[in-house]
Amino acid sequence: MVHQLINEHEKVQTGLEVMVNDIRVDYMRLPNELSYVFIVLVGPYGPTVTEADAAIEEVTNAMMSQSYDHGSEWRIKNRETDTSMVERYGQYSVTVRFRVKDSC
């Protein structure tokens, strides 16, 4: 289940993050397109890449489902993954580009 995280120390949320099965997923919208970058820290102190990928998939599925409530139907146009390792952890990121379903 996806739970929106709220930072009580900020009056205006500047970061977007959710928890999915105890996995924190940070995300941001890319400017001028219907695309989001999702980031999860993976490694010995965090989830595996497989678990991170499943969490990101759950968030994108929730976004697509929610789009129906707002009068559009999002579909995934493409998906790009990147894993960059730092000394003690890895940053797993996925860029998801959406399109609005054709009305025809």
Strand order of the largest sheet: 1-2-3-4-6-5
Shape: globular
Strand content: 35-45%
How many distinct beta strands? 6
Query: How much helical structure, as a percent, in the residues?
Result: 10-25%
Largest sheet: 6 strands, antiparallel
Show unreliable segments: none
Round the mean pLDDT to the nearest integer and report it: 86
Q: What gyration radius follows from the Cα positions, in whole Å?
A: 15 Å
What kind of oligomer do you see?
Answer: single chain
Amino- and carboxy-terminal Cα gap = 32 Å
> How many H/I helical runs?
1
Q: Structural class of the helices, strands and pairings? A: alpha+beta
Helix and strand string, N-terminal first?
Answer: EEEEHEE
Brief characterization of the structure:
This protein has 104 residues and is α+β, with helices and mostly antiparallel strands. Helix content is 18%, strand content 44%.
Tags for this entry?
104 residues, alpha+beta, six-stranded antiparallel sheet, 1 helix, 6 strands, 44% strand, globular
Question: Can you offer a commentary on this structure?
Answer:
The protein is of the alpha+beta class. The chain contains one helix and six strands. The longest helix is centred in the middle third of the chain and has 19 residues, at 49-67. The radius of gyration is 15 Å and the shape is globular. It starts with a strand and ends with a strand.
List the helices and strands and how they pair.
Elements: E1 2-4, E2 16-20, E3 23-29, E4 35-42, H1 49-67, E5 74-85, E6 90-100
Antiparallel strand pairs: 1-2, 2-3, 3-4, 4-6, 5-6
